[in-house]
Structures are given as C-alpha cells and as structure tokens.
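Translate sequence into structure tokens.
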Amino acid sequence: MKNSNLVYGVKDRPGLWKTLIFAFQQVLAILAATIVVPVIINQNTGSNMSQSAALVGAGLGTLVYLCFTKFRSPVFLGSSFAFIGSMCAAFGGAGAYLCLGYLGLILGAVFAGLVYVVIAIIVKFAGVKWINKIMPASVIGPTVAVIGLSLAGNAVGDMVKGNELLALGAKFDAVNNVWVMNWTGIICLICAVVTLATVVICSVYGKKMMKMIPFIIGILAGYAVASIFTLIGMATDNSKLEIVNFALFKDMAWLPKFTVVEAFKGIGDVNNFKWGAFIVSIIVAYVPVAFVVFAEHLADHKNISSIIGDDLLENPGLHRTLLGDGVGSMVGAVFGGCPNTTYGESVGCVAISRNASVVTIFTAAIICIISAFIAPFVTFLATIPTCVMGGVCVALYGFIAVSGLKMIQKVDLNKNGNLFTVATVLILGVGGMALKIKEITITAVACALIGGIIVNLVTSKMTKKEEAEENKEKQD
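Result follows.
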C-alpha cells in the first residue's frame, strides 16, 4: 500500500525553514474553519468565546492526537462543526449563568471524548476486521467523496463574499438557486479566481518549493488583490470595495480567553441551579453527536491512509486514532471550548503538497499555540477575506472528493451490490440527507455512510456469491 508519489513521507524531516513554511501552509488551510466556530456560537448564544483560544485548543488537541498515534498520522485537529448545536445547547441550559455555559462546553467535550474512549477499548479487543467488512471501499470511497462534495457549496458561496462584518458580497436567491451578483460580489470573485489560479499554476508549473506551498502563494496573491481594492475603497470613501477588514486591528484581543478560566468566573454566585438536569441535557446534546462524528473519523482516516500509503486503522491502530481524537477534543475544549476533529482541509493540504511529514503537523500545532498570544499575527490571519479562502477551498475540497473517487476505482461496479452501495452513498450525501431530531443533528455525511453500510450488508452475500462464481469460472 506504499505511495511513492509523496515528496516527504510521514517520518521524513524537511529542513527547518521548509518545515516552518509547510507548517504555516497547514495553519492557513485549517484557519478559517477553526476560528469560525466560536464566531457562530457567539452569534447564537451571546457568549464571548475567543478565536485565539480556539487556536490554542486546536494546537494542543493536535499534539495530544500525535502522541496517541505515535506520530504516524499527519492530520491536524480543528474545531468541529458537528458539535455547534451541542455547544449552543450548553449555553442554553445554563440560563442566565454564562459561566456555566463555558463549564458545559468542557463537560460536553469530556462526555463526547469518553464515547471515543469506550469505542477505542472495544476496537482494541475486537480488532478492525469487522469494520473493513461493513465498510469496504464501496462504502468508504463514496463517503470520502461526499465529504468533499458536501463542502462544495461552502467554497462556492465563500468565493463571492468579502468583508463579513460589513456583509459585503453577492446575495443568494434561494428561490431560483442562484447567486445575484453585485459589484462587490464580482470583485470578490476576481480575488477568489486569482487565488485559485495561483494555487493551480504553482501546483502544476511550479518548481521544487513553489510546487509544495501553493496555498501560501495563492492566499498572498489573493490577499494582495483584495488589499488593492480595499485601499481604493478607503481612498474614495466607498465601503463596498473594502474587502479586507483592516478595522480588526483597532480592537485586537491581546490575550486568549480560555474556556476553563471563563467557566469559573462568577461560579460562586450560582444559586439554586438544577445541576442534575443541566448535566443530563449536556449528555443528551453531546453523546449522540459523538457517534455521528465517529463515522466521519473512519472516513477521514481511510482517506489519509490512501494518500500516505499506510493503513492507519492497522498501524498505529484505530483504537489509537480514536483515543487521540477523543482526548484531544477534551484538551481542546478545556482551552478553546470546541471539541476537535480531524480536518479534511488538512488532508487535502497533504494530498496537494505531497508532504505527509508529521513534523510539519507538529510544527503547525506549535505555531497555532504561539500565534494565539501574538495579537497582530492572529488579527492578520483573521483579516484574510472570505473570498480568498473560498478560492483555496475549491482546490482543498475538490481533492477530498477526488481521493474518494480514487477509492471507488478499486470497486467492481459491474456487480449490482457494489453499484447500489456506491449509488446510495453518493445520492444521500450529495442530496444533503441531513436529519435533525430535537438537539441531535445527523449530518449528510453520516446519513450517507449509514445508508451505504445498510445496503452493503444487505447485498454483500450476493456480491460474494458472484465473486466465487467468477473465480470458479477462471479456474475452469
């Protein structure tokens, strides 16, 4: 299963400066999604979660994950979108006591992490062969493709959005399912296209180092174009051209607000609070989601395994990746409030740059932790326009989808069992079969995976019979 297409393998160590540059590229790849989760929670709950603290949580969570996986899995962990509803429920159950909302974030991550720990113990003694039986390439391949394709709408939408604070950019017409472009939207699209074109040109025509850091070059190119439009807008007093939100530098947060600190602020003033009901509500909000994220955990690790040429479910073992993810989420939530998960953006970055060095991931985690205490640097990263990241994500999410399609190449689609399994996963996933039952949201990816598992189990007996008959005919 070895992959000779990598420039740097898992155990390789690029030079110091190369490692720093590659690590910074990883940080840029995971940045937008990692820091946007606290923003969403703040908008929905009135809380004040810190973006820089989320970076610290992601960095520490990744370090924990690397330790548990014996530094064999080159994946970065960032804030999980799957737990957004759960996090909002934590603040909702806290009532007027905001400090208890932060405490709920920590408790929820602990309960979710314990789910991973329990599953890891089961896997340790039961092995992973049963997983390979119920989730063969005909299930995992299209599921990985769906992970990339399900994010396609986000990438396209981001390409026509600029300064989110001023709500600049094109507007989406839900009735006609089309983006209604204005001048700002067109400018944003230009920035996104410049970014994407730069990434593509560097990846295809670049030499040596340039070919390995296309995202850094692409983002800088897009940022430069966006800055030019912004400066023109500032000079002409036309806010519609201000794609880059330089105003963020005026109100920089110099120190991260760690969740564990916020949780114990004012806790002494809590009176007559129903702790039992609160804890039960946290369990109900977090634990079911953990099982859903487990399914995506499997798909992500199957994907990165195909890229690096080593089956991570066997070595270091699924039980170790689960423990790393679970305990990493607990640690991440203590500091940043957000449970962590393996990032498809990180996997895509590995695939495009062909750099699977774990040292790079380790360094990226350190950069996230240190940079959280350097306000100008964090603010600079936060000013990268949405449209610029949208241009990058077209490539990142596309590579995730293509990785899944590569897995399907190994599947014999002439067998109806395989054909219906792949078809079910693709349609449920691309069709957006997401379900919400009270506080529990089952993502489209999870629904697609569950559907594929069911179809595969129902049809596997006939598929095996067909394979046996074919082998018999070959022998005859």
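Note: The mean pLDDT is 85.
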